[in-house]
Amino acid sequence: MNPTRGAVGGTDPRPAAVVLLSGGLDSATVLAIANQQGFACHALSFRYGQRHEVELAAARRVASALGVVRHVVVDIDLGVFGGSALTDPTIAVPAAGTAEEIPVTYVPARNTIFLSFGLALAETAGAWDVFIGASSVDYSGYPDCRPEYLAAYQAMANLATKATVSGERTLSVHAPLMHLSKADTIRLGLSLGVDYGLTHSCYDPGPDGRPCGRCDSCSLRERGFTEVGVPDPAGG
Amino acid sequence: MNPTRGAVGGTDPRPAAVVLLSGGLDSATVLAIANQQGFACHALSFRYGQRHEVELAAARRVASALGVVRHVVVDIDLGVFGGSALTDPTIAVPAAGTAEEIPVTYVPARNTIFLSFGLALAETAGAWDVFIGASSVDYSGYPDCRPEYLAAYQAMANLATKATVSGERTLSVHAPLMHLSKADTIRLGLSLGVDYGLTHSCYDPGPDGRPCGRCDSCSLRERGFTEVGVPDPAGG
C-alpha cells in the first residue's frame, strides 16, 4: 500500500532496522512484526543461486505490501561452494521427513553470510536492530537457526563494526519467531494483516513457480495452516 | 611453480585449510605460513566492488606461485551498501595519517562477510582451519582485525554449521600475523620464500595499477620494507 514510507537518510523519525526478507512465510511475518514495533525497515534479500528464485518475486511483493524504507537485493554466489540441494542442481530436494538429521537442503553458513550482509547494511543505514525469521520450532534442523547460534552471532557483531565498537550502543539480533510453532507464526501474522498469498515457501517449485507440496518447507507450511484451520491463500 | 598440488576431494593427504587471499602482502605471507604448516590450502578471494581490482590479479599470481589446491573467487557486491572509500567512487581515499580514528577506507563488516564465505568454503572442503591476514599491529584501526573480534567469530562459527555442531571437531580461525609488525611479517615471509613482487597493497592505484605511494596501505608497506632494510620488489 505504502511501499516507500521514508527516504534513505531522510526525515523518517522511526529508528531504522534491517529485516532479512526471503519472501517466505516466516520473514514476511517478521517484517510485519518489525513494522508494528515502530521500526523503519530496510529489507534485505539475496539472489544466491537458489533453485527457487521465485522467492525473490515474493520478497518484492511482500516488501511492497507491508511497506519498507527500501528493499536491497544482494547478489551472492553460494553455488560456487556446492554442497546443498538448494543451490546445486545435481542434488535432489528430498521429500519431507526423508532427510538425514540435517538435510541436504542445508546451505553451508547461509544465515551467517546473510546476517553478515545484514550487519553491513545496518551500519550504513544507522540501524541497531537486525531481524531474522529463524525458529527452533517446526524447522528443518539447521544449526544456524538455534538461539545459541544467534546469541553468539550478536556477541561477535558487537565487536565487528565501526558503529558497534564505538560503545555508544549495542546491536541486537532479533528472532521473534524463535519459540513459535508454524501455526503460532501464522496466527500472529494474520493478526498483523500479513497476506500470506504473497509469500512463497517451497524449496523446489515447478517451472510455473507453483509449490511442490512435498518438500520440508511445503510440509511445514501445510501443517501450520491446517493447525490454524484456515486455507493457505497461496494454495500450497 | 606448482599451482595445483591436489584435486578437490582427491588424494591429497594433507588436512585442508581455507586461506583468505587478497593479493596483498599480509595474506600472501599467511598463505606461505599455512603451506609451511602442512595444510592443503583452498585460497578464497573476493571481487567486492573494490577500486583496486588489480588486487585480484595479484591474488592469482600469489596463489599460483605459492601453490594452492584451488583458488575460489567469489563475486559479492559490497558497493550496494556504500559507506567506504574502497567501494564508493564518490569518497576519496585519504593520505596516510590524515584519516579519523577508523578511516573511510573501512568497509562495513568486511572481514565478517569474508570469514562467513570462508566458513562456507571450509565446510564444503572439509577444512577445520581458516586463515586470515588480520593484524593488530601496524594496521589501519579496523575493528574486525582485533583478536577479541576473531575469538568471538570463532565461537560463533562453531555453532553455525553442520560440520561444527557435529561435535566431532572445532573450527579454528588463525591470524598468524596478529602480533607481528609489518616488518616482522615481511621478515617471516621472506624466510618462507614469498615473492613480494607479486603482491599489491595500494588502496588507490593509478590506471596502470601502480601504487599511489600515499595511502595508509602504501605507507605501512613502505615503512615495513624500510625497517627490514630491503627494497620493496613491487617498487612501492
Q: What radius of gyration of chain A results from the CA coordinates?
A: 17 Å
Structural class of chain A: alpha/beta
Overall number of domains of chain A: 1
CATH class categorisation of chain A: Alpha Beta
* CATH topology annotation of chain A: Rossmann fold
Question: Order of SSEs of chain A, N→C?
Answer: EHEHEHEHHEHH
Count of discrete alpha- or pi-helical segments spanning 4 or more residues of chain A: 7
The largest sheet of chain A is: 5 strands, parallel
Q: Which pair of chains forms the biggest interface, and how many residues does each contribute?
A: A-B, 42 and 42 residues
Low-confidence stretches of chain A: 1-9
GO biological process, one term (chains A, B): queuosine biosynthetic process
Catalytic activity (chains A, B): 7-carboxy-7-deazaguanine + NH4(+) + ATP = 7-cyano-7-deazaguanine + ADP + phosphate + H2O + H(+)
Binding site for Zn(2+) (chains A, B): 202, 212, 215, 218
Pathway (chains A, B): Purine metabolism; 7-cyano-7-deazaguanine biosynthesis
Would you kindly provide a written description of the structure presented here, covering whatever features stand out?
The structure is a homodimer of 236-residue chains. Chain A has 236 residues and is an alpha/beta fold. Chain A has a single domain, classed as Rossmann fold (3-Layer(aba) Sandwich). Chain A is built from 7 helices and 5 strands. Chain A has a 5-stranded parallel beta sheet, sandwiched between helices. In chain A, strand 2, helix 2 and strand 3 form a beta-alpha-beta unit. The radius of gyration of chain A is 17 Å and the shape is globular. The first copy, chain A, starts with 15 loop residues before the first strand and ends in an 8-residue tail after the last helix. The interface between A and B is large, with 42 and 42 residues. Chains A, B: InterPro entries: QueC, Rossmann-like_a/b/a_fold.
